[in-house]
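Continuing the series of single-chain predictions for the mutant panel. This is the parent chain; the variants come on the following pages.
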Amino acid sequence: MNILVFASKLVGCKCVEFLLKEHMNDNYTFVITEKNDEKLKALLVNSGQNFYEIDNFNDHLNNDESFDWILNLWGGLILESRLLSKAKNNLNIHPSMLPHARGKDPIVWTIQNNFPAGTTLHEMTSKIDAGDIFYQQELAYCMPIKGLELYDQILKHSVNVFKNNWSNIKNNPKKFKIDYEKHQLFLRKHLINNQTKDFSDETINKTLLWLLSHDFTKKEDQKKGKYGAQVIINNKVYIATLSLEEKN
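Parent structure:
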């Protein structure tokens, strides 16, 4: 098969490595979407594969060129319909259980909204993260969990989901539809607006004052259960502390 691959970062590198090892008979055109992605470049060079940088890819794309598949493996791009039309099929790896947490920064919205976490392999369309689904798999997680912790788990999960299902999808690209109508599309501006809260916000104010009011003892005393704020989550008791540092 003739396959156009956009890839970057850890997930992209692991998935490309898998393609070159387990699907070596396919013909690939690789496009690196992240500048200074030296690990992915080294993998392709050492594998004898030619590749394009995203900045000069369009200059080398022939108008009449076509593909069996376009894969967006953590490429971080919104591919135009003009490009998607050059392939019979296409697939994107999205790190959430669509239709939940569509768009940017899905880990943030998964935790904040108590969405199910997981990986979705879906078709790309003119609408962002709104295509039919090839496969999706949930990743169980428990609160409390930090964004970075869940993100690291999702990276590994996404690679495994792609590896375990690509062969079947490639040869038998069946899809199913889901309803995106009532689910928000998150953009980067939503993250920026959500990152900063004013102390006058009543919900923030009460929580911070509660944490600060109990934060007058040493950490070793808190662990002994003597003092300090505590939160009960799923019948487990957690010590709650607050770190405030003035931003320069």
